[in-house]
Design brief:
This protein has about 300 residues and is of the alpha+beta class. Among the domains are: about 110 residues, Sandwich (Immunoglobulin-like); about 90 residues, Cupredoxins -  blue copper proteins (Immunoglobulin-like, Sandwich), CATH 2.60.40. The chain has six helices and ten strands, in the order ααββββββββββαααα. Strand 1 and strand 2 form a beta hairpin. Helix 4 packs across helix 6 and helix 5 crosses helix 6. The chain is elongated and about 90 Å long. The mean pLDDT is about 90. It binds dinuclear copper ion. Dinuclear copper ion (CUA) binds next to loops.
């Protein structure tokens, strides 16, 4: 907000000076038509309009640089540790205990209210930027390099559950502007329950014939080449982990597609409808296989 107000002040000054100049120095009746006489080589003006922006940047730098080091330093020991991996065009979140991966999820992040969250950020392909605007500054996701940031999410009401939208903030290809994430900040007890649930293996809630058929389609078909569903034969590492996909509110952040059977069917049929250039190729499943796959995936709560 400080940056915004400084920019507003500069904008008002410059636009004001422009308007005054236009009015005061306009061509008056009877004056000759032609280019006005230019003013060149004023050293004081040159120094002034070089020095002022430089001072503004130095001032903002003094405020921001210590914060960058502070948020990249060691987090409190009880912090939730998440490995963030940017992919074209989705986010992978690995919840960690030391070097051990507890579970992996995609695009949807859960964090306990009031406890520090410690992110170590990298990328699987090109440079992305991890950003939840209402919570903290941007931090780049760079291949073969780890960037760290930690902060403490706080809801206005500690008993509430609040979703904060996030967005990739570094141009990374055709679907860059659609590379959303959703950070759910909730009370500690709700977070603990979520963690226990995520750590469990995939278990279809309704084991109907349709769901069982869908399990076959997904875990023994081409889906399994790219996606992991813990506890099944699907162990692909390229795409999002789908172990509990049915429990996610959105397919890719709240802005793009709510997790409804109709959206999921469209997504499987041709994910480029949602994300142009998506690396997931269109799946030519028969109508009945598609319905079965959707029923199975939505049952993975
Ligand atoms: Cu990822 Cu922009």
């Amino acid at each position: 907000m400080l940056t915004v107000w400084i920019a507003v002040a500069i904008g008002v000054l410059i636009e004001g000076a422009l308007i005054v100049t236009i009015v005061r120095f306009r061509r008056r009746r009877g004056e000759p038509v032609g280019a006005p006489v230019g003013r060149h080589g004023s050293t004081p003006i040159e120094i002034l309009w070089t020095a002022i922006p430089a001072l503004v940047l130095v001032f903002l730098g003094i405020l921001v640089v210590p914060l960058i080091f502070e948020t990249a330093a060691a987090a409190p020991p009880n912090a939730v540790k998440v490995r963030v991996i940017g992919h074209q065009w989705w986010w992978e979140f690995r919840y960690m205990q030391g070097n051990k991966v507890l579970f992996t999820t995609a695009n949807e992040l859960h964090l306990p209210n009031g406890r520090a969250a410690d992110f170590s950020i990298t990328s699987a392909d090109v440079i992305h930027s991890f950003w939840i605007p209402t919570m903290f500054g941007k931090r780049d996701a760079i291949p073969n390099h780890s960037n760290d940031i930690w902060f403490t999410p706080k809801n206005p009401d500690p008993n509430a559950t609040v979703s904060y939208p996030g967005q990739c903030a570094e141009f990374c290809g055709p679907a860059h502007s659609l590379m959303y994430l959703n950070a759910v900040v909730e009370p500690e007890a709700a977070y603990d329950a979520w963690v226990r649930h995520q750590e469990s293996k995939a278990a279809p809630v309704v084991a109907s014939a349709l769901v069982r058929r869908g399990e076959q389609v997904v875990t023994q078909g081409s889906c399994a080449g790219c996606h992991t569903i813990d506890g099944t034969a699907a162990a692909g590492q390229v795409g999002p982990n789908l172990t509990h996909i049915g429990s996610r509110a959105n397919l890719s952040g709240p802005q793009l597609a709510a997790n409804t059977p109709a959206n999921l069917a469209r997504w499987i049929h041709n994910s480029s409808d949602f994300k142009p250039g998506s690396h997931m190729p269109p799946q030519n499943l028969s109508k009945s296989d598609l319905a079965a796959a959707v029923a199975y995936l939505e049952s993975l709560k």
